[in-house]
Structures are given as C-alpha cells and as structure tokens.
Amino acid sequence: MPEQQYAEDVARFGGGTLAIAPLYQARAGAELIGRLGAAAIRKKSLRQTAHLLQRCAAAGYRVNSPTEESRRGGTVVFDFPGADKVCAELNRRKFFCDHRPGGGLRASPHFYTSDEELDRFMDEVATLRGTL
C-alpha cells in the first residue's frame, strides 16, 4: 500500500464518495430552518430552556448547565440521585434524553418540541424519581 500524503488544510478531511442520499434528506431540514429563521428558533429555545430550568428549581434538582441566557445553549443538564436509572427508563418509554456521570440528565428541546411535551417529560422524570 502506498504511503499517504495528508493535506495541511481542511482538504485533509475530504475523501471518498459523497453520500448523495443524505444530502437530499438534509435539504428539507435546512429549508425548514431557513423558513423559520435562526433568530426565531433561538428565541423559542431560550423560552423552553428557561421553562425547564424553572421546573428543575421547583423540583430541587441540581442544575449543571448555564442558567444565564447569554451563556445557555439548547440543552439543560440537571441531576439528582438515581438520575442514571431514571434516564434509562425514560428512554425505554421513548422520552429521549441522555445521562452523563457527574453531569446528570441532558434534555434538549428542539424547534419542533411543544411546551406540552416538555411538561410531560418533566412530569415523567418526577414520577420515575419517586419509584426507582
């Protein structure tokens, strides 16, 4: 096998056959985001993550993500004893989230997530916390 010569710039990461089907599949999402606008998506994200933070505070969960709007992304990370077990059961029940040791549950509402879905998620967290 011949020795490879890697490019010194971004071309180093190029190669292989382009995945044409995923490009077409991604197009619909890019068009939707273009129609909605990044500013509107961010505004909704801030509102929904603020709501999650309020629910976390009311439940007494430890929040491990920034709470200030200027520093907050689209994910709220919160923790409590047994959060890993709660996360596993949430995912089994199709309430999709993630758990990281030392961080906690990671909930990331998207532009298509409704406020009702967030409340159902947080209600399910509270229910499971009391049973696992």
Would you write up a description of this structure?
With 132 residues, the protein is α+β, with helices and mostly antiparallel strands. It has a domain of 92 residues: Aspartate Aminotransferase, domain 1. The chain is built from 4 helices and 4 strands; from the N terminus they run ααββαββα. Helix 2 runs parallel beside helix 4. It starts with 19 loop residues before the first helix and ends with a helix.
Proportion of residues in helical segments? 40-55%
Shape verdict:
extended
Spatial extent as radius of gyration: 20 Å
Number of strands: 4
CATH architecture of the domain at 38-129: Alpha-Beta Complex
Q: Write out the CATH superfamily name of the domain at 38-129.
A: Aspartate Aminotransferase, domain 1
Largest sheet: 4 strands, antiparallel
Q: Which fold name corresponds to the CATH topology of the domain at 38-129? A: Aspartate Aminotransferase, domain 1
The secondary structure category is alpha+beta
CATH class division of the domain at 38-129: Alpha Beta
How much of the sequence lies in strands comes to 5-15%
Spatial order of strands in the largest sheet = 1-2-4-3
SSE ordering = HHEEHEEH
* Cα separation of the termini: 55 Å
Integer average pLDDT: 93
User: Counting H and I runs of at least 4 residues, what is the number of helices?
Assistant: 4
Low-confidence sequence ranges: none
